[in-house]
Amino acid sequence: MKLTTKGxxxxxxxxxxxxxxxxxxxxxxxxxxxxxxxxxxxxQLFIRLKEKKLVKSVRGVHGxxxxxxxxxxxxxxxxxxxxxxxxxxxxxxxxxxxxxxNKSIKCITHNLWDKLDNHINGxxxxxxxxxxxxx
Length: 135
What we know:
Elements: H1 5-20, H2 28-35, H3 39-51, E1 55-58, E2 64-67, H4 76-82, H5 110-126, H6 129-134
Antiparallel strand pairs: 1-2
């Protein structure tokens, strides 16, 4: 399974934001310090999260970011999608007529990895940001 730091850090940052933005916007530098993530990297992630309307920016001295939707409405899969993170267990393209590993047929374990892929993506589709914050 491939899950890059982009996806992991985006979820960590969104969970931090959900935890700390109850009354006021949260600056990316605060998130960077608490989560030990590069500020420059967070800025790149939050551009994408803002484009997908998961967060809003607030300008000013006490500015920062707030969630654009309640944490109860943001699925982990939404966060992955926003930052172009793709969870894959297959080397081949799912619906491709071409087989695995550049062969003419699918590999012998293709269906196993396909089921795992569906299970993992279904899991992230059913977990809400709010659940991370409550733990």
